[in-house]
């Protein structure tokens, strides 16, 4: 696989991240509306809305999934790079590859686990306590976000291996 094809694939992942961002933005608007209505009913009308927490929690789940994908493509996750203080690029080539391989395995496993847990649905009691909203689609959205992150990490691993003798284009600047 060439670097050009990997860059095109990374651009496709960026487009997918934009779709996650749109979904997260819509969920954020819904969460703000839910919160506003809830506060109005609770404090002005003195009539709290039953099950409003369930709606808030489920919309927040979509926001979290979207933020995982969006920050992954924009390298917004927190990282502390202290190895470069003590060792140069010759050493970090290996640590980057090992770190990305472990991160890929962890994200792929998390995605798999979310899909397995989500597929159980109501028989496993995976629903909200008040309104009985089934968690299955929300597990799947989180699983897709983790799978997206795993695909991006794998892409960065391969790009890093292709740039073994030079600077890694996906290494976060200090």
UniProtKB/TrEMBL annotation:
Residue span(s) of domain Tripartite ATP-independent periplasmic transporters DctQ component: 31-158
Organism superkingdom: Bacteria
Pfam families to which the protein is assigned, alphabetical: DctQ (PF04290)
Bilayer disposition of the protein: Multi-pass membrane protein
Compartment(s): Cell inner membrane; Cell membrane
Residue stretches spanning the membrane: 12-43, 97-116, 137-164
One of the record's GO cellular component terms: plasma membrane
Keyword entries, A-Z: Cell inner membrane, Cell membrane, Membrane, Transmembrane, Transmembrane helix, Transport
GO molecular function, one term: transmembrane transporter activity
Function statement: Part of the tripartite ATP-independent periplasmic (TRAP) transport system.
Similarity section: Belongs to the TRAP transporter small permease family.
Subunit text: The complex comprises the extracytoplasmic solute receptor protein and the two transmembrane proteins.
Protein name (database record): TRAP transporter small permease protein
Organism per entry: Shimia abyssi
């Amino acid at each position: 696989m060439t670097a050009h094809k990997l860059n095109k694939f990374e651009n496709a992942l960026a487009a997918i991240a934009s779709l996650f961002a749109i979904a997260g933005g819509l969920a954020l608007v819904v969460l703000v509306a839910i919160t506003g209505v809830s506060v109005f009913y609770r404090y002005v009308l003195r009539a709290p809305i039953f099950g409003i927490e369930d709606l808030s929690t489920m919309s927040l789940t979509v926001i979290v999934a979207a933020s995982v994908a969006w920050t992954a493509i924009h390298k917004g996750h927190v990282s502390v790079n202290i190895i470069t203080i003590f060792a140069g690029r010759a050493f970090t080539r290996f640590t980057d590859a090992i770190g990305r391989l472990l991160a890929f395995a962890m994200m792929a496993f998390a995605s798999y686990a979310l899909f397995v847990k989500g597929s159980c649905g109501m028989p496993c009691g995976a629903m909200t306590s008040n309104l009985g909203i089934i968690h299955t689609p929300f597990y799947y959205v989180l699983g897709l976000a983790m799978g997206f992150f795993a695909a991006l990490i794998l892409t960065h691993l391969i790009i890093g291996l292709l740039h073994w003798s030079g600077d890694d284009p996906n290494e976060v600047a200090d």
